[in-house]
Amino acid sequence: MNRRQLLRATTALGATGALTGTAVSADASAADATRPLRVHVAMFDGVEELDFAAPYEVFSAAGFFTPRPVEVRYVSATGARTVTAAYGTTVRGIRPWAPDEADLLVVPGGGYARRDSPGVWAEIDRGTLPDALAAAVRLGLTVSALCTGVMLLSAAGLTRGRPCTTHHKARPDLEQQGGILKNARVVDDGDLVTAGGVTSGIELALWLVRRELGPDAANGLETMLEYEARGTVWTSSRID
To answer: What are the residue boundaries of the DJ-1/PfpI domain, all occurrences included (predicted)?
Structure first.
């Protein structure tokens, strides 16, 4: 089955049907159409600009292609604050951590190659963000990450024994820490969705838009962005 066939097959029933193999009722579909899709993007000092900006733009623009409201916000496990990204970009207006108010949580990466600089390693050493990620897990929340943000999920214990992927340079570490590596650009294991390095954040967001909002929304976004999603999407039939 090629990638396009896979995308059509796994989105035909919507997010719930695709992951559980059960049909989505008309009442449930109607309720989902009026309830906002709430996306939170985790932020920290040293985060890679493209890692957080690409998913933020894709999810924000998704609202143009679906009647369902889409709400996107930047959040921080250390509270409302300003963050300085990897290349010096200052991001203000970041809101407090509130995973109970999210449907999708997106964790970008950054700084993994620089152990003594702000970024993923500093966050792992501090422990605040990994602890917050571990505590965030609940029914109805999809935790996702891209690039070395997946290593923050690993530090939280969320990838152990689960299919996943990350930036190619961090893959040995992820496997050593118990992740089950899949050779795919996006790996969807139900409530855990991971993606490869940097630019794969676009694919991660497009895939989640397709899964949650339908293929028309994702196709419309690809046209608007003048970008065709590439690479393999690995999916499971995991029921969580």
So the answer is: 38-209
In angstroms, the Cα distances linking 166 to 39, 100, 110 are 21, 26, 12
Query: Which tokens belong to 211?
Result: 């899964």
pLDDT grade for 159, boundaries at 50, 70 and 90: very high
**Do β-strands 104-107 and 37-42 pair in parallel, antiparallel, or remain unpaired?**
parallel
Span 110-135, average pLDDT = 95
Global pTM reads: 0.86
Q: What's residue 114's pLDDT?
A: 84
Locate the domains of the chain by residue range. 36-227
d(CA 218, CA 240): 25
How many Cα atoms occupy the beta-carbon half-sphere of 140 within 13 Å?
8
- Is residue 239 within 8 A of residue 20, CB to CB? The reply is yes
**pLDDT tens per residue across span 28-63:** 455 567 899 999 999 999 999 999 999 999 999 999
pLDDT of residue 33: 75
% of the chain surpassing 70 pLDDT:
85
Range 36-227 classified under CATH 3.40.50.880: yes
The token duo for 40 is 């939170």
Burial class (CB in 10 A: 0-12, 13-18, 19+), 53: middle
Do residues 229 and 219 lie in contact, with contact meaning Cβ atoms separated by under 8 Å?
no
Q: Closest Cα to residue 146, out of 91, 185, 189?
A: 185
